C-alpha cells in the first residue's frame, strides 16, 4: 500500500517538490518527520572516502601506496596520511574521479588517513540491520516506488527519440521506409518506420501539450553544420549561433524561431515539428521531440536522482538500501506500476518471462540516427537478452538521457560506489550486460566524448576483484569480460568500414581508405568502444592471462587486428606530384599508436602475473602461434605479392625465388615496394614485436626464455618469412623516403614516414618491426643456413640484392629494372648503406635489461647535448615505464652536473667511448651533431707534446664501441647475422662499389 501510494504522490507533485516528499515518505514510520534522517547512525565507520572530484580539485598520487596510476587521494586525506619518504606528486583533477583512500584494492592500508584506515580484526555489520526495523521496511517500499517512477521517467525520455509519427492530416504515409525522409526538406513524412517499432507518444495529435523539438550534441557535426541546419529551420543568424553554442555547452537546445513567420506554422506545434524533423533527419543530427509534460518528467528524474544521492551520503544503511533497490529486478510492467520499456533507437524491448521476471531482449531492427536508418540489429541475431533492472536500464539509456539527468545519474553511481562490499560488483554486472549496446551506439555517433558513461567505467574496471569476477568463464551473457570488450571493439571497426564516407576518389587516394574518414577514426572514438577499458582491466593482476586462456576472446582480438591490418595503403606517386594530400594517415597512425599502447598494457599485466617455471613460456608460445595463424589468414586475403618458394639451390643470391635449406622449404613474397601497394600498419607483427620486447626485457626470475617460446611455437620457415616480410618492407620504405624517392607523394607522406622511425613514435612502430625481425631470426637459428636466408630477405626488401652481391652490374641499369619512373633514380647507393645499417641494427639493438637500456639512452642523449634533468628523463620515454629510482641511479652513475646559472647534466669522461654511431634512437642529423661533439671532446683531451710547435698524436680509438649486452638467447642472432657468407658478400660488394671510380659502370 505504501509503495503504491508513494508512486502516486511522486508522479503527482511538482518536480521541484519531489525531494521533500521523498524524504517525508521515507520517514513514514516516524510520522513523516524528515528531520529524523539527520539522526540516523551508521552501522560501520566510513572506511572509504569516495569523494567525487570537481574540476580543478587537487588530487595526489603516491608511487608507494597506489595500486596503479589511476588511484589517487584527495587533498584532505593526503594531508592526514603518512607518506614520509614516498614518491608523491599532485595534479588538478578532472570531474568524475573519486578519492581511493580506504579502498584496499586501490590504496595501501598504511597510506590511508586515520579516518578511513581499517583497524586490525575489524568486522563489518550489514548496514541495513542497524536501522530501525519499521523505518527500514517503510523506507524500502518508498525507495522501490521512487525507482519505479525513475524508470518510467527514463522510459519516457528514451521514447522522445523515436522517429515514427503519424503522417500529416492523419492519413497513412505512402512509404513505410525510414529512407523516405525528404533529404531536400521537401515533401515526405518525417520518419514513418516499421510499425513493429516503438512510436513517439509526443507526436500524437492528442498529446498533453506543446511539442518541443530538441537537437543534441555529438562529435560528428561542426559549429557551421549546426548553424546551417538551424538557418534551414528559419532561425535568424544570431539566434542560430546562440543555440549552437547552447548545444555545445548544455548538450541540447530547442529549435524555435522568434515571432511569427508567414511561410511556417507556429512554433511548438505538430506541423512545425514535422518540418524541423525533415531538416534534422536529412542532416543526420540527433533529435528528440517532447511535450511540456515530458519536460516536467525529465526534471522529476533529475530531482529524484539527486535526492537519492543525498540520502546515500547521509547513512550507510540508506546507501545499501538504494543500491539493493536499483540492482533488484524491476517490477513487472502494469497499469499504475510502470510502463514497459521499448525503444527502436536502442533496439530493445522488455518482455516478461514464464516465471514473471522482466527481461530486455534485442529487437530485429534498430533505428539509427544516420543511414542506414533501419538496420538489421546484430544483437537480435546473437540473441542478446539481459536482465531488466534499474541499473541496466540506466546504463543502456545513458546516451539518450538529457545531460542534466545523465550528470545526476553519474554522480549517484559515483556516490554508491563507496559501498565496495555490494554495489561495486552489482554495478559492474549491470555495465557488463549493457556494454555491447553502449559501445554500439557510441560507434554510431551517439554520445559525446567527456560526457558519456565511459567517463566513469575506469572506476569499475580498475578494481581487481570485479574484473576477475567478470573474466571467469560461464558469464551469463556474451562470454567473459575480455570477449565482450573485444567484441565491442571489433563491431565498432565494422561500423566504420560499413559506413565509410562517400569521398570522390582522387589521384593517390585509394577509395578503400575512405573508412578512415569515419568519425570513429577522426575523433578516436574507438577508445570508448572497449580499447581504453581493456587497458584498465589489464592493470588488475592476472587479467592478461585470462585473455590467453579464453579462446573466444583471443579469436576476437585477432579479428580486431585483421580490421587494421594493412590499412591506409599507398603507392609511389609517378608522373606529376600528388594533387590532394589526404589526412588518412593521421587517423591510421593514431589507431596504430593506440593499439600499440594496448599491447604494452597487456604484456605488462602478463609479466606481472607470470609465475616461475614452464607455464609462462607456454602462454607466450600460444599467443605467438595464434598470431602467426591469424597473420597467415590475413595474408591470404590481403596478399600484396604472389608467394615464391625457397627449395632448391644455394642460399639466396640474390633471392631469385628459389633457394635451399638443408631440411626445409620456405614460401616468401618477392616484392618491389616501388611498384606495389604498401602500408606501414601491421598490427599482427607489432604484437609479435612488442611481445619480444616484453619477454626480452623481463627479469630472469620470471622464468621466461624467448628461445624456448619460439621453439614451443614450432614456427616453420614460411612462418619466419611471413614475420620478416612486412616489417622489412616498412624499414625499406623509411629508407627510400629518406632518399626522397617518394617525394612526389607529398609532404604529409614524408611527415608520416619520418614519424615512423623517430622518437617517440618509433617505440610503437619502427622498434617493434625490428623486434619482430629479430624474433623471426631466432626461428632461423636451428637451420644450417637459416641466417643466410634471413640476410638475403633484408637485401631483397631493400632492393639491393644484385647491387651488393653483383658489384660489377651497372647501378643505372639495376634502377631502371626496379622503377618505371625516371625521376628519383640514383638511390641504390643510399639504400645499400641503409641496408647495411639495418643489418647492424638487427644484430646490435637486441633486447636487454631495463637498466642497460636506460643507461644507453642517457649516454647517447648526453653525447648529442648537455641536458637538464627533465630533458634526460624525456629521452627515456622511448622505453617502457622507467622507475624514478632506477633513472636517478643511472643519472648519478654516468652524469655530472655543470655549474653556472643554468645547471645541466653532462657525460662523465669515461662514458664518451660508449657512443655508438649506429644507435637506432638518434636520427642521422642528430648523429652528425653527436659525432662532432665526440671529435671535439677527444680533441680537447689530446695530450700535448713537449716543445714549441709540436703536437702529439692521440692514441687510436675504434669507430664503434663493443656491442651492448643482450638477453640470453639472442646472442645467436648477433653471431648468425654478422658472420655468414651473404653478409660478407654484401660488405665486400659495398666496398667494391665505394672504391670503384665513378663512370666505370658500377658506380652507385
TrEMBL record:
Its EC number is 2.3.2.27. Residues 170-183 have a biased composition (Low complexity). It catalyses: S-ubiquitinyl-[E2 ubiquitin-conjugating enzyme]-L-cysteine + [acceptor protein]-L-lysine = [E2 ubiquitin-conjugating enzyme]-L-cysteine + N(6)-ubiquitinyl-[acceptor protein]-L-lysine. GO terms for biological process: protein ubiquitination; ubiquitin-dependent protein catabolic process via the N-end rule pathway. SUPFAM superfamilies: ClpS-like. Residues 939-955 have a biased composition (Basic residues). Pathway: Protein modification; protein ubiquitination. The keyword Zinc applies. A zinc finger (UBR-type) spans 47-118. This is E3 ubiquitin-protein ligase. It comes from Phaeomonas parva. The lineage of its organism: Eukaryota, Sar, Stramenopiles, Ochrophyta, Pinguiophyceae.
